[in-house]
Write a structure and sequence with these properties.
It contains 1 helix and 7 strands. With 120 residues, the chain is mostly beta strands.
């Protein structure tokens, strides 16, 4: 039983590709470099969903990356917003990174975020 549980846990960890939350997607060009450690969400005093994502750059180099957030309503449909654009952020060699964002509308109940290396 313990052996089966350990194998299942290991397979799940490998399958997540360095990400502990299915709402955060790492593209192929960063999944071996970035390790998402924590995803926190809360409602602020205005009723807007706030997210905070932290992780580490496991690569031995600095690179430019970018993220795009799609805000979702309670039915899982994307909300139409100008904020769902690629936003650049630096990832320093061997350092932690932090991303924070606030939903554009109180109807946002969830999100999906994609992180990738910045295309020049």
């Amino acid at each position: 039983m313990k052996k089966t549980l350990c194998c299942l846990l290991l397979a799940t960890t490998i399958g997540l590709g360095g990400c502990l939350d299915s709402r955060v997607r790492l593209s192929n060009n960063v999944e071996s470099d970035l390790n998402v450690k924590k995803v926190v969400t809360k409602r602020n005093h205005d009723g807007l969903l706030e997210i905070h994502i932290s992780g580490e750059n496991d690569a031995s180099k600095y690179f430019k990356s970018e993220y795009r957030i799609v805000w979702l309503d309670s039915d899982g449909f994307p909300l139409d917003t100008l904020l769902s654009k690629w936003t650049p952020f630096p990832v320093y060699e061997g350092a932690e990174f932090h991303l924070s964002a606030v939903a554009p509308h109180p109807r946002a109940t969830d999100f999906r975020i994609i992180i990738r290396k910045k295309e020049d």
